[in-house]
Amino acid sequence: MEQVINKNIDAKLKKMLFLLAFAEGASVMALEILVAKMVAPLYGASLYVWASIIGVTLSALAIGYFIGGRISEKHSRVHTLLLLLFAVSLLMALLPAVAPGIISSMTNYSIRSASLLASLILAGLPMLLLGMTPPLIISILTNAVEDSGKTAGRIYAV
Asked: Which of 24, 52, 73, 87 fits as disulfide partner to 115, beta carbons 3.0 to 4.6 Å?
């Protein structure tokens, strides 16, 4: 027996949510490249820099997925999703202004420590918030418990 969740998602909202899922994925990639370009003038584009950026990205996304899943149990609303995306947009818009000061303040650290710390400070919170969005989108789109896997697969594929 199919357990139905009472939600009526119109086609327009559904398309918009899939578009937001695509924009979230593109933002993750753009943020990775942006942080690498910001760190590169002082530390180069070495293996240490990229390992730091990728490590921070994967860790922050994983934590964001977990927190997003928890939030989606209580606040599965479009309003919550839009507030979250607004916060991410604001943080990403501020990066070019704050990054030079953050990166230059780490000249006394080794390249390993500095690249990890800079990646964590610049990308950690925005990546965590970006990781919170897919569980919210999935929760909004899910009409039946039996369809949750299909919905999640579609969102992560986008």
From this structure: 52
Write out the two tokens for 12: 């327009």
Of residues 130, 156, 155, the one with CA closest to residue 34:
130
**Alpha-carbon distance 44 to 103, whole Å?**
12
DSSP character string of 11-58:
HHHHHHHHHHHHHHHHHHHHHHHHHHHHHHHHHTT-HHHHHHHHHHHH
Span 51-87, pLDDT tens digits:
999 999 999 999 999 999 999 888 778 899 999 999 9
Instruction: Give CA–CA dist 48/143, Å, rounded.
Output: 44
pTM across the whole model: 0.86
Distance from chain centroid for Cα 4: 29
